[in-house]
Amino acid sequence: MTDETDTTIAAESPSEHPEHLSPEFVRTVLDLVEAGEIEAAREKVAPLHPADIADLVELTPGEQRRQLAAAIAGLIDGDVLSEMNDWVREELIEALDPHEVADIAAELDTDDAVAIIEDMEEEDQRAVLRALDPDDRAAIEEALSYPEESAGRLMQRELIAVPEHWTVGHVLDFLRGQEELPTDFWEIFVVDPAHKPVGTCALSWILRTPRGVSVGDVMKREQTLIPVEMDQEEVALKFQKYALISAAVTDDSGRLVGVITVDDIVHIISEEAGEDALLMSGAGDGDINEPIRDSYKARVRWLVANLFTALVASSIIALFGAAIEKMVALAVLMPIVASVGGNAGTQTMAIVVRALATNQLTQSNTVRTIRREILVALLNGATIAVLLGIGAALVFGNPALGGVIAAAMVVNILVAGLAGVLVPVTLERMKQDPAVASSVFVTMVTDSMGFLAFLGLAVAFGLTG
Amino acid sequence: MTDETDTTIAAESPSEHPEHLSPEFVRTVLDLVEAGEIEAAREKVAPLHPADIADLVELTPGEQRRQLAAAIAGLIDGDVLSEMNDWVREELIEALDPHEVADIAAELDTDDAVAIIEDMEEEDQRAVLRALDPDDRAAIEEALSYPEESAGRLMQRELIAVPEHWTVGHVLDFLRGQEELPTDFWEIFVVDPAHKPVGTCALSWILRTPRGVSVGDVMKREQTLIPVEMDQEEVALKFQKYALISAAVTDDSGRLVGVITVDDIVHIISEEAGEDALLMSGAGDGDINEPIRDSYKARVRWLVANLFTALVASSIIALFGAAIEKMVALAVLMPIVASVGGNAGTQTMAIVVRALATNQLTQSNTVRTIRREILVALLNGATIAVLLGIGAALVFGNPALGGVIAAAMVVNILVAGLAGVLVPVTLERMKQDPAVASSVFVTMVTDSMGFLAFLGLAVAFGLTG
Questions:
Q1: What is the pLDDT of residues B427-456, one digit of tens each?
Q2: A233 to chain B nearest CA, in Å?
Q3: E strands of A123-280, at which residues?
Q4: What GO MF annotations does this protein's record show (chains A, B) (predicted)?
């Protein structure tokens, strides 16, 4: 993170800083590699920021990726790897020798090293660990002993902790005297004799305070401590809520064991917030770099689930086969009721899933939220019902049909609003991720109810004679 | 952000730190307010972190919210307001006198003050600005002159900038001597005589470097500069990509005019990543605190749009009215083809919208992504086709019907995969937000194609005699 490449595209022309590498640039580099002009390719790539080199590798098609990686091997260091898409990195790492991986891991902070090693096959993982020097190995092994996606995996063990009785001068001398300090740090931690954190000190306060003052007097006692087993999603929410730059991680006995910094959290905030859209759609947690086999497996499950819920809706239609035979307009109109209802349900569900994910929706306001969504549903339902009812009455020259479809629409949008709140809230109470399964249930409800309300009312009101 | 409340729930019991305020706690406070025991209520609320006080206000139902706000008025300061949900804050601010708002704004950093003032009615805004002292007013007026959601609105003007020839000792003395410094800062900026940034220095490097060294020798020249008009979404992507803690903001002529820090960005990262799920569902950018009128307006637009796309699908069914009358099984099965196809389209669309939002999908890999999605679609289509084809053949005792629905399923899932990539990519090329409108188009395509392929093939293969 602190490598001091002399220039970047960013520094040279801030206002024209490309949002991403231009297709021309990517093509130029790949053409050079293809033509065997390795030196020229390296010269093009060398001035890039590690994150841009990572992007370049991602943008290169699979077949050419290894060629490129071989050509610019020396430039793909730990910083590049830790910025790289998980799938692409995994593929690259698999092609490397355990010793090469160990060399890369050794130069990284614990958290970045763990991110690279944790996805490897167990056998390769052991080979890499063996190749590391004992200190690094112990740190990484300990991190790996914590559950996946927990604070223990995210934290780095390199941190500055000082006793409360030290003065600011003490701290300054200590920092200047130390050779081996974390690459970057933003706060120092104050600990008691049992190594339990009692406060934090932003570096800016240290800088502004006279040497004689004790750190106990400048530190902030209020602090958010992160238990080492806390899930990364919760860690991310804490960083957002309390606007943290870094936070102390403590073990079961309350001792300070590591630090998590915000630059490692921004990725997680973005991932966790973005993945709900993917999960709700039934696309798993994949992206465009996921291997096709994994994408197939993740998605087909939900399509099969959707197939079964569609069968439920379908069997409701089957009950009304005779009515449809008599009045084919019913078959023409019924998907509208289901479709608009499904959309209304998805709207509410998306709002509720997001509110649950950000801890905005709790037991204190569930009832209020249900009431709110029913009100919105009534307004929406009435609007759509009027439009569709009048339209259907005119087109089919049948006011009764218009009335029936209008009534069915109101019923289905109301049901959609209710299901849109109740399904995700219930899943959350059952300790399930509401983003994962809500969609299937909500769609089943709105499809089935759409057909049932419309066809049922049509029969009840004698439309089909 | 630096207020030094002595304790928080977090500091006292890290491992039991509640994820959100317990319903019991909320009820207790509201009961105290209701009973007029204002002092007791204040005592309960006072030890909370500003972000938790903001949550408490959000969790309180609308009717009781003003009562609560009045009771704990002194505790609702700028820090609490800047942590509060936009809708709830707007409602509270509207109830305040301009002078009260000005008092609150004066104690905040520019960016937080702007966030509070920018949503006010113009007249109230002017009243607040008049009540501010001239320096604060000028800073806020300038920020308001930048476009909404731009870097200019996000930045704070309080920052440390030093000339390149200064030594570390110089910087230290300067920092100790200044009374009026930003509340918190993590990096200092090095500028040339024209006040253009030439490098940044993390405080940790200043702390570790001997006094005699010049800042030009410790600073990092590589830096990401943010033009003042840059959209906040892009700013957030830069912070993520380059793992920034703070970044210099420059005006058109390249002069340093402000700084954006990561704690102001985490909210935006989360909002921007999370809002795509809401936008795709057609729920606008609202949340459970949005006023019902606004929710209705945002959502009904998309339901009406959906109504029209459903009519397209519906008119395709109408073309096949005669076929349905002869074979009602077609009406029973057709929603399955549309529904599973729609789901497959949504899966691809969600992946593609996310990849576009994170700059993972560019011109360099569009064709590759289309090829990839077609492959996944073929696999998914084949799987579903086999299941559904055999099932339909058995249930209806009609192998030809099974063959037709299987073929229709493959066609529709393929079309869904194509539409799932092409629709959002095309919208992006046309400078539209792909999250906003993709869903309507993709659903229209998969619904229409589902009915057309199934009913069309049924007729073509003479199923209906």
A1: 999 999 999 889 999 999 999 999 999 999
A2: 11
A3: 161-163, 187-191, 197-202, 226-227, 246-250, 256-261
A4: magnesium ion transmembrane transporter activity; metal ion binding
Are the Cβ atoms of B296 and A368 closer than 8 angstroms?
no
Q: Please tell me the distance from the alpha carbon of residue A152 to that of residue A155, in angstroms, as a whole number.
A: 6
The reply to whether CATH 1.10.357.20 applies to domain A291-460 is: yes
Closest by alpha carbon to A316, among B92, B333, B356, B253?
B333
The whole-number pLDDT of residue B17 equals 42
What are the residue boundaries of the structural domains of chain B, listed by start? 9-149, 161-277, 291-460
- Identify the CATH assignment for A9-153 out of 1.10.3720.10, 3.40.50.720, 3.40.1280.10, 1.25.60.10: 1.25.60.10
Q: Which band of pLDDT confidence, cut at 50, 70 and 90, is reported for residue B9?
A: very low
Residues making up chain B, counted from first to last: 465
CA dihedral B335, B339, B345, B348 (to 10 degrees): -160
What CATH number should be reported for the domain whose range is A161-275?
3.10.580.10
Q: What is the mean pLDDT of residues B371-375?
A: 95
What is the 8-class DSSP label of residue A365? G
CATH topology for B9-149 is: MgtE N-terminal fold (1.25.60)
ipTM of the complex: 0.84
Q: How many interface pairs between A and B have CB atoms less than 8 angstroms apart? A: 443
Q: Report pLDDT for B298.
A: 92
List B252's β-bridge partners, or say none: none
Q: What pLDDT score does A70 carry?
A: 84
Tens of pLDDT, residue by residue over B130-146, are 888 888 888 888 889 99
Tell me whether residues A243 and B1 touch, CB distance under 8 A.
yes
pLDDT of residue A373: 95
Q: Which residues of chain A have pLDDT under 50?
A: 1-19
CATH class of B161-277: alpha beta
